[in-house]
Amino acid sequence: MSLSVPVPDPPELEEIDPNEYEDAEVVGDTDYKREEIEALLREGAWEQAFSTWASTTDLDEADFEIITDLGMIQRFDFFWDSFAERVGYHAPGIPEDWKEREYHPDLESWGSVSGINAALTELGQLVCDVLKNEYIEWETEYEAPDDLPDFD
Fold first, then answer.
1. 10 Å Cβ neighbour count for 116?
2. How many domains does the chain divide into?
Protein backbone atom coordinates (compact mmCIF):
# COMPACT_ATOMS: atom_id res chain seq x y z
CA MET A 1 0.00 0.00 0.00
CA SER A 2 1.11 3.58 -0.44
CA LEU A 3 0.20 6.85 1.20
CA SER A 4 -0.16 9.75 -1.20
CA VAL A 5 0.21 12.90 0.89
CA PRO A 6 2.55 15.88 0.73
CA VAL A 7 5.68 15.63 2.84
CA PRO A 8 5.04 17.60 6.05
CA ASP A 9 7.65 19.90 7.51
CA PRO A 10 10.15 18.12 9.73
CA PRO A 11 9.68 18.41 13.48
CA GLU A 12 11.39 21.17 15.40
CA LEU A 13 13.41 19.47 18.10
CA GLU A 14 13.19 20.70 21.67
CA GLU A 15 15.72 20.30 24.47
CA ILE A 16 14.25 17.35 26.36
CA ASP A 17 16.21 14.77 28.33
CA PRO A 18 15.49 11.50 26.48
CA ASN A 19 15.65 9.61 29.77
CA GLU A 20 12.34 11.24 30.68
CA TYR A 21 10.60 9.07 28.07
CA GLU A 22 9.20 5.81 29.42
CA ASP A 23 10.66 3.82 26.54
CA ALA A 24 14.13 5.36 26.27
CA GLU A 25 17.37 4.69 28.02
CA VAL A 26 20.27 6.85 26.98
CA VAL A 27 23.74 6.57 28.45
CA GLY A 28 26.44 9.11 27.80
CA ASP A 29 26.84 12.83 27.75
CA THR A 30 24.04 15.33 27.42
CA ASP A 31 25.04 16.69 24.02
CA TYR A 32 22.12 15.25 22.10
CA LYS A 33 23.07 17.23 18.95
CA ARG A 34 19.47 18.24 18.30
CA GLU A 35 20.47 21.40 16.42
CA GLU A 36 22.67 19.38 14.07
CA ILE A 37 20.01 16.70 13.62
CA GLU A 38 17.32 19.30 12.97
CA ALA A 39 19.53 20.88 10.29
CA LEU A 40 20.06 17.48 8.65
CA LEU A 41 16.31 16.85 8.68
CA ARG A 42 15.76 20.17 6.87
CA GLU A 43 18.59 19.42 4.43
CA GLY A 44 16.76 16.39 3.08
CA ALA A 45 16.89 13.52 5.55
CA TRP A 46 13.27 14.08 6.61
CA GLU A 47 11.92 14.23 3.07
CA GLN A 48 13.90 11.16 2.05
CA ALA A 49 12.76 9.10 5.03
CA PHE A 50 9.17 10.31 4.89
CA SER A 51 8.87 9.57 1.15
CA THR A 52 10.26 6.07 1.64
CA TRP A 53 7.93 5.49 4.58
CA ALA A 54 4.88 6.82 2.70
CA SER A 55 5.56 4.46 -0.20
CA THR A 56 5.45 1.39 2.05
CA THR A 57 3.15 2.19 4.97
CA ASP A 58 -0.21 0.52 5.47
CA LEU A 59 -1.61 3.78 6.83
CA ASP A 60 -4.41 5.34 4.80
CA GLU A 61 -5.13 9.01 4.15
CA ALA A 62 -7.90 9.13 6.79
CA ASP A 63 -5.54 7.92 9.52
CA PHE A 64 -2.82 10.29 8.30
CA GLU A 65 -5.32 13.13 8.57
CA ILE A 66 -5.81 12.20 12.23
CA ILE A 67 -2.03 12.36 12.70
CA THR A 68 -2.01 15.79 11.08
CA ASP A 69 -5.00 17.05 13.07
CA LEU A 70 -3.32 16.01 16.32
CA GLY A 71 0.02 17.61 15.36
CA MET A 72 1.80 14.33 15.92
CA ILE A 73 4.57 14.86 13.36
CA GLN A 74 5.77 17.92 15.29
CA ARG A 75 5.92 15.86 18.50
CA PHE A 76 8.65 13.53 17.21
CA ASP A 77 11.98 13.80 18.96
CA PHE A 78 15.34 12.78 17.53
CA PHE A 79 18.61 12.92 19.46
CA TRP A 80 22.14 11.61 19.38
CA ASP A 81 22.92 8.77 21.79
CA SER A 82 26.68 9.17 22.14
CA PHE A 83 27.24 5.94 24.06
CA ALA A 84 25.62 3.77 21.40
CA GLU A 85 26.67 6.07 18.54
CA ARG A 86 23.18 6.05 17.14
CA VAL A 87 20.28 8.36 16.57
CA GLY A 88 17.59 7.79 19.15
CA TYR A 89 14.00 8.83 18.78
CA HIS A 90 10.72 9.14 20.54
CA ALA A 91 7.61 8.72 18.43
CA PRO A 92 4.36 10.30 19.53
CA GLY A 93 1.47 7.96 20.13
CA ILE A 94 -2.21 7.87 20.82
CA PRO A 95 -2.81 6.95 24.48
CA GLU A 96 -4.64 3.85 25.63
CA ASP A 97 -7.50 5.91 27.05
CA TRP A 98 -8.19 7.56 23.67
CA LYS A 99 -11.84 6.54 23.74
CA GLU A 100 -12.60 7.90 27.20
CA ARG A 101 -10.77 11.14 26.44
CA GLU A 102 -12.51 11.55 23.08
CA TYR A 103 -9.02 12.08 21.69
CA HIS A 104 -10.15 12.66 18.10
CA PRO A 105 -13.67 12.53 16.60
CA ASP A 106 -12.59 10.30 13.69
CA LEU A 107 -10.89 7.66 15.84
CA GLU A 108 -13.30 4.76 15.96
CA SER A 109 -11.30 1.59 16.55
CA TRP A 110 -8.34 0.08 18.29
CA GLY A 111 -7.22 -1.02 14.83
CA SER A 112 -6.79 2.59 13.74
CA VAL A 113 -5.04 3.54 16.98
CA SER A 114 -2.67 0.58 16.75
CA GLY A 115 -2.02 1.23 13.08
CA ILE A 116 -1.22 4.89 13.69
CA ASN A 117 1.07 4.13 16.63
CA ALA A 118 2.89 1.38 14.71
CA ALA A 119 3.25 3.54 11.60
CA LEU A 120 4.72 6.43 13.59
CA THR A 121 7.20 4.06 15.23
CA GLU A 122 8.22 2.80 11.80
CA LEU A 123 8.63 6.37 10.54
CA GLY A 124 10.79 7.28 13.54
CA GLN A 125 13.07 4.30 13.02
CA LEU A 126 13.37 4.99 9.30
CA VAL A 127 14.33 8.61 9.97
CA CYS A 128 17.02 7.42 12.39
CA ASP A 129 18.37 4.95 9.83
CA VAL A 130 18.49 7.55 7.06
CA LEU A 131 20.20 10.07 9.35
CA LYS A 132 22.82 7.60 10.58
CA ASN A 133 23.50 5.87 7.27
CA GLU A 134 23.41 8.81 4.89
CA TYR A 135 23.79 12.10 6.74
CA ILE A 136 25.70 11.83 10.00
CA GLU A 137 29.45 11.86 9.68
CA TRP A 138 30.47 12.65 13.25
CA GLU A 139 31.81 10.16 15.73
CA THR A 140 31.55 10.40 19.46
CA GLU A 141 34.63 10.54 21.58
CA TYR A 142 33.71 8.52 24.64
CA GLU A 143 35.96 8.71 27.67
CA ALA A 144 35.61 6.18 30.45
CA PRO A 145 35.10 7.64 33.91
CA ASP A 146 38.23 8.02 36.06
CA ASP A 147 36.77 6.04 38.93
CA LEU A 148 36.67 2.64 37.21
CA PRO A 149 38.35 -0.16 39.20
CA ASP A 150 41.88 -1.11 38.23
CA PHE A 151 42.01 -4.81 37.26
CA ASP A 152 45.81 -5.07 36.97
1. 23
2. 1
